[in-house]
Every structure is written in structure tokens, then in C-alpha cells.
Design goal:
The structure is a single chain. The protein is mainly α and about 240 residues long. It has one domain (about 5-30, about 95-235). It has 8 helices and no strands. It has helices spanning about 5-30, 40-55, 65-115, 125-135, 145-160, 165-175, 180-185, 210-235.
Length: about 240
């Protein structure tokens, strides 16, 4: 098999890597900033509820401290809900990032690695086939420096999609910090979660992907394509 490595080197560098980076940059610069003023939003919700409660007719026996507490709870609930959505967004972008990487792999695999008669046959559209075909060219993708990080990303994606299971157990063994709420680490409570109990990661609970994690995963995807480009040139 002779691959057009020059064409694909340009595709990797000019399309695949920029698309991965754009995904993370969009999250960082366009979406996460919308959560920047949650404290002010919560205060506004609390004030609005306090004024609403204060305007209700009463008989003079109302406990103002109780009304203030109820208003505070409204503001707090808004803050907690939006923080959960923010974390859920970070978690979901890990899923999107992994599947974008997988789709890039399949695009290259179908268009260049497989024979024309194979590229639309589902039994060949597997990452195991992709790795096997590369090995036939003397390329072991699992030896790339980027490989362990991308495998971690795959575990993150499966954990976010399916909650607790084999992937969450493997991920917890590798990166237990991902299962610790970030606010706990600041108070010295990190490392207390000895098991990976994962119920609702899509609502920002139980697994806590950070923007720094996503950037590390995006860097690994970019490195993968650089490593594959170099390997193809030497095959």
C-alpha cells in the first residue's frame, strides 16, 4: 500500500488540527465567558425575590429573617444550577473533542487506508482495523507519545456519556482528581473520593473536566496527527 502522505500531512495540519483547536477555543472564548457573572446574577435573583416577598400582603406577623432566608435560597439555587450547567458543558466538550478526533481518524482511514471496495463496508470501519493496517506499514500508533492521553480522553468521553461503568473505574485508577469537585481541592479535601461513583456527569456532577484538561487533550490530538504524519513519511 502506498499512501499519499504529502497530501494528508497538509490535511492533518491544515484541517484536522485547526478544527480540534477551534472547538476548545470556542468554548473558552465564546461560551464560558457567559458564566462569568454568576455571583451578580444570583444576587439579582435574591434581591428580586426579597422584593417580591416584601410586596405580598401580610398581617404583620411575617418573620423578615425567614423571608430573607427564602430569598437567599432562590439566589443560591440559581448559582448552583448555573455552575452545574457550566461543568456539564465542560464535560460535554470532552465527549465532542474525542469524537471529533475519532471522526478525523475514520475520514483518513476510509479515504486513504482502506481499499475503495472497503471504505463503505461497516466491518472495516473500526479503529482496530485502522491500527492493524498501520501496523502492516510498520507504524504502531499505540507507541505515539500522544496515545496515552488520547486513551484517557476516550475514558472521559465514555464516563460522561454512560456514567458509572468499566470506563469510569479505569479512569478513576488513572486520574482520581477528575472525580473530585474542584472547590474541595482548595480546602484541602482532595483525594477523599476512593471510588468512582458516577451518576449524572452531563449535569456537572461526579466528574469534573477542566478547561486545562480539554487543552491538554486537544494538544494530544494535534500531536497525534504530527506523529502520524512523520511516521507516514518514513513508511
Amino acid at each position: 500500500m502506498v499512501l499519499n502522505h504529502r497530501f494528508w500531512a497538509d490535511q492533518f495540519k491544515g484541517a484536522f488540527v485547526p478544527e480540534v483547536r477551534a472547538l476548545v477555543e470556542t468554548l473558552e472564548t465564546r461560551l464560558l465567558p457567559t458564566f462569568a457573572n454568576l455571583k451578580s446574577e444570583a444576587d439579582a435573583k435574591e434581591k428580586e425575590e426579597r422584593e417580591r416577598l416584601g410586596s405580598l400582603p401580610g398581617d404583620g406577623s411575617e418573620d423578615m429573617a425567614d423571608l430573607a432566608e427564602r430569598a437567599f435560597e432562590i439566589g443560591l439555587a440559581h448559582y448552583q444550577t448555573m455552575m452545574s450547567i457550566r461543568q456539564g458543558l465542560l464535560n460535554m466538550f470532552a465527549v465532542a473533542l474525542f469524537h471529533l478526533y475519532e471522526q478525523h481518524v475514520m475520514l483518513f482511514h476510509r479515504r486513504e487506508v482502506l481499499e475503495p471496495r472497503e471504505e463503505n463496508d461497516s466491518k472495516f470501519l473500526k479503529h482496530s482495523v485502522f491500527r492493524e493496517r498501520l501496523r502492516n506499514l510498520g507504524i504502531d500508533a499505540t507507541s505515539f507519545a500522544s496515545w496515552p492521553v488520547l486513551q484517557e480522553l476516550g475514558l472521559v468521553a465514555n464516563t460522561v456519556k454512560h456514567a458509572e461503568g468499566d470506563s469510569s473505574a479505569k479512569l478513576h485508577a488513572q486520574r482520581p482528581a477528575l472525580f473530585e469537585p474542584p472547590e474541595l481541592a482548595g480546602f484541602g479535601f482532595a483525594g477523599l473520593k476512593s471510588v468512582a461513583r458516577v451518576f449524572t456527569p452531563l449535569t456537572g456532577d461526579d466528574i469534573y473536566v477542566s478547561l486545562e484538561d480539554l487543552k491538554r487533550y486537544a494538544d494530544a490530538a494535534g500531536q497525534f496527527w504530527e506523529e502520524l504524519s512523520d511516521a507516514l513519511a518514513q513508511a
